[in-house]
Amino acid sequence: MKSAPPPDPETLAISALLFIAAETETLSRFLELTGLDPGDVRAAASDKRFLLAVLDFLMADEPLLLAFAASETLSPETVVAAHRKLHKAVDPAHQAY
Questions:
Q1: From 45's CA, which of 18, 38, 75, 87 has a CA 20 to 30 Å away?
Q2: pTM of this prediction?
Q3: How far is 79 from 39, CA to CA, in rounded Å?
Q4: b/e map of 60-86 (b: 16 or more CB within 10 Å)?
Q5: Of residues 3 and 83, more confidently modeled
Q6: What integer best gives the mean pLDDT of the chain?
Q7: Phi and psi torsions of 23, nearest 5°
Q8: Quick one: pLDDT at residue 80?
Q9: Between 56 and 91, where is the model more confident?
Q10: pLDDT in tens, 30-51
Q11: Backbone angles phi, psi at 41, to 5 degrees
Q12: Dist CA 6 CA 80 (whole Å)
C-alpha cells in the first residue's frame, strides 16, 4: 500500500492555526507572543512567515505539538518536516537542523 503524500506545509499551518484558535488560553498565548490582535489573524494567515510562526509556536510546546499531530492523524515527525519545508520556503538559505 502506498503511503499518503506529505501534507502541504501551508495547509498544515492553517490547520494548526485553527487548532490553536479552538482553545482560548492557547490562542491568547499565541496572540501575546506574536503581538497580533485577533482581528489581524485572518489577513496574516496568507503570509508564509506568519504560517511559519504558527508552526514555530507548535514546535516550542511539545504537548501541543503532540495533541495537534494526533488530531490530524499525523506523526509529530510529519509536522516537523512540514515546518522545515516551510522554513526553507521562507528563508532559502535556511539550513535544516
A1: 75
A2: 0.88
A3: 26
A4: eeeebbeebbeeeebeeebbbbbbbbb
A5: 83
A6: 91
A7: -115, 115
A8: 95
A9: 56
A10: 999 999 998 899 899 999 999 9
A11: -65, -45
A12: 11
Copy the grid coordinates of residue 89: 520556503
Identify the residue whose cell numbers are 488560553.
25
User: CA 21 to CA 23: how far, in whole Å?
Assistant: 5
Q: State how far the Cα of 89 lies from the Cα of 35, in Å rounded to an integer.
A: 23
Q: Is 81 within 8 Å of 87 (Cβ atoms)?
A: no
3-state secondary structure string across 3-56: CCCCCCHHHHHHHHHHHHHCCHHHHHHHHHHHCCCHHHHHHHCCCHHHHHHHHH
User: Which grid cell sits at 47?
Assistant: 503570509
Cell 488530531 belongs to which residue?
A: 71
The whole-angstrom distance between residue 22's C-alpha and the CA centroid of its chain comes to: 14
